[in-house]
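Internal tracking record. Fields below are filled automatically when a chain is submitted to the structure queue. Please do not edit lines marked as system-generated. If the sequence contains nonstandard residues, flag them in the REMARKS field before resubmitting.
Queue: standard
Priority: normal
Entity type: single polypeptide chain
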Amino acid sequence: MNQDRKPRRLASGVFMVGGPDLTDPRDCLCYLVDGPQARVLIDCGAGPRAHAILEMAVAAVDKAPTHLLLTHAHIDHAGGAAEIKRRTGCRVIIHTDDAQVLADGDTKRSAADWYGLALEPLEADEVLGGDGAIALSDQEKLHILHTPGHTPGSLAAWCLTDGLKVLFGQDVHGPFAPAFGSNLDQWRDSMQRLLELNADMLAEGHFGVFRPADEVRAFIQEQLESHQD
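SYSTEM-GENERATED OUTPUT FOLLOWS
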């Protein structure tokens, strides 16, 4: 079902600003976290409609993103990074284990060849070696977690807003392939780490938004059960 092509408010300061029915069928679901000190775009789609994702983000909060957090270097999540960087000058953040894929525009490891697209190479501004954080205000942070499995450098993030713990776990469901550097054992450990957060809301990269906490837990556990040995 198509909905109005406008930002979707999920919680206070949290918006969906891109996705298949918002911007382009090839785009992952993209999210914006707004705070007094930072406006963080989480992933930026496959590239051809990066401008539309940016327009949606600006429409949500009347200002451009200050940061772009790439949960990994796959084309549907990172393809618009170079364009967003050019248009905003935002700080691009990625994990070191996926940074070279983005820097090289690697068509195999980025899955760009699956989509018939090219990944424009980009050197990130900040390369994480593990967990990290972005200050949203003097009190609140967007916490970044290294959650390898889908790719070696996969990241998740979470923040608190209005007493809710909102988790951004983009490719919780996989898929997994040798070309991506996937590791199912690492992924299972990462999913356990996400379960331990006891999040009230999960904003996933392809399956949508899950709430309340029992629905978040059920979805992650369902994925774990579907990839048993």
